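Hey, I'm writing a tutorial for new members on how sequence and structure tokens pair up, and I'd like a real worked example in the thread rather than a made-up one. If someone can provide the structure for the chain below, I'll link this post from the tutorial.
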Amino acid sequence: MPIATRAFAATSAKAPLEPYSFTRRDPGRDDVVIDIKFAGICHSDLHAVNNDMGNARYPLVPGHEIAGLVTAVGADVTKFKIGDRVGVGCMVDSCRVCAPCKAGEEQYCVPGFTGTYGNADKHSAQSGEAITQGGYADVIVVDQAYVLNIPDSIPLDAAAPLLCAGITTYSPLKHWNIKPGSKVAVVGLGGLGHMAVKQAVAMGAEVTVLSTSDRKKADAERMCSKHFLINSDKDAMKAAAEKFDLIINTVSATHEIASHLQLLAHDGTMVMLGLTTEALPVFAVPLLWRRRSVAGSLIGGIRETQEMLDFCAEHGLASDIEVIAPSQINEAYARLEKSDVRYRFVIDISKLDQAA
């Protein structure tokens, strides 16, 4: 039977999130029922709630960084059992038959994957919800094919952001073959950036953080970044020219990137991870002169996300977090607008009762 669910939802663009009740679908034979313990707050949640992309539907329960415990499984579930520590990331379904899906890159599903929240819900007849609803809630029902195992060594609260921030940075580091001796720059030391630094260091790269000020220099050093570069320092930028094999750009606001291209070595790539809604001018000459590239990357497939979780467990990596109660969500959103978090807000769902 459908599962009564308590949550926090946005009811209109820029409106404060508030308590919301709805029903999850009746679990099917391939479904896993998860008691959500923690949910990370991603900057894309803020974009969705504010309808920055112009396609939001309300009420909207955000949250695609979900960590919890399995409380029930369908008759055909073979990957999970009751009590397992599990996670759910940015997607809960895909077409499963296109070339990317068959290759284990469901994030590039040709018709488009089904997002954990805000997408048309094919189970709407059972749940009564026209769109998928995310992890700012006490329970979720997900097909076993889109559920991840969280290794025992990673605390559930610190694991939650790995399901988006962790895989968003891990995937390009792997795709561009970062290895011992690689030189990697990370633009922006935030929720994504701090994970990019940790993962690149664990892969053996020499890492430099690029920032607008030295406010986070000590944090970068603690995360074993080798260098720290203020991008308004023209002399320092000139000295770093043609140095980096890969630049991971995590900034989610409109910003100037043309000058950063000079930092790339021959065949170097700047990969864009931040969700920006305005154009970023790029000039051809710096690209042509060294066969440089500007690219994009979007989370990772289920297989690669599990690989990332296992990699983080092996190397003792997790997100730096600030745990908040559901009643503090709107305050956290206001702080996130000002980049006032080090480095990921995580909602303690066990305190949902206190916010009712």
